[in-house]
Amino acid sequence: MASGFSRTYTAAMRRDPLEYLSTELQALRDQGLYRRLRVLDAEQKARTSIDHRVVINLSSNNYLGLTTHPTLVERALEATRRLGVGSGSVRTIAGTMEIHMELERRLAAFKRTEAAVVFQSGFTANAGTVSSILGREDVIISDELNHASIIDGARLSRATIKVFPHRDAGAARQILKTLPREQRTLLITDGVFSMDGDLGALPELCDLAEEFGCIMMVDDAHASGVFGDCGRGTVDHFGLHGRVDVQVGTLSKAIGALGGYVAGSRALIEFLYHRARPFLFSTSHPPAVAAAGLAALDVLESEPQLIAQLWENTRFFKAGLQALGFDTGASESPITPVIVGDAALAMQLSDRLFEKGVFAQGIGFPTVPQGKARVRTIVTATHTRDELQFALDCFKAVGAELGILR
Fold it and tell me: DSSP alpha helices (H): ranges in 64-201?
């Protein structure tokens, strides 16, 4: 049996097999791309405290301010008192509670589909669905800027993946024309693209799906609670009900809680009950989360002024950035990128804004393409006009200081 000394000696002499990670991290520091986690030490609000500094928060997905809405808070507390803090099991064993079924029924009605299923996150909803309904003999045709969860799900499915240029339905058509008509094919797009804030070419892709017999799927994470009647998403926004086979949404952004969901036909949902690995092998949501999701749907349907205020704030802030001379890309949503190109410059812009009292996170490769680094901003319904004007003033000062504005 080895002595304590020999074990210590062996550990001290052993080469670290993960040493290369430290080298990679140092390379990020050398490029000005190393980011430490900012720590929120207050509520997720439009004005909050991050790293013990009070800032205007322009980096949250809390579009409607529902993370702190009194109705959601009270429903979550009531569910916890009544049902406990956790479900204790996966859905297929002992973890399906009546409150989960109620949430799925409400989501299906909200999305105007036959059924819905809730996942632990938007990421697992996308990845779990794509990887379970497609196999190695199938083809996935995907927008080049689709979310990472779609990309990972496509890879896990082992299907052939073909990528078309961003929002280019004509290029998607050319790909489809090369495939046999009997080929099982998934055509997939984001509803709202999370880094550029533009909308997917959903109407044109629906036309293609019908012409070529494809499964049509949309990831509406950033459209849920933002676009369409009462926030029903891009399918409602474009009037495409009944033409999209698989709708993915989230409970984590405008809904204010946690999780993702898939809405579609009853057959689709029951198949996911049996084959979607994240559903099969992850503990179900705590009762408080399900209750908050239900409360959020009530708020969306009863307080339409929240979405109206979100869009009023969006128009004001976007116009202000553009008037100053910033490049906001092709944004059509509350996601408004301030594109500067150079990654180190984007991180400098983010850091200097933070010092002045504005939290707007810098984004670089691989999240966005090389040469397209930006500070991504998101306004919410709960920002005041004074807060947004303060942020614009800070952007103006820092933009001039860093030579972005001339």
Answer: 70-83, 98-111, 122-133, 148-157, 169-177
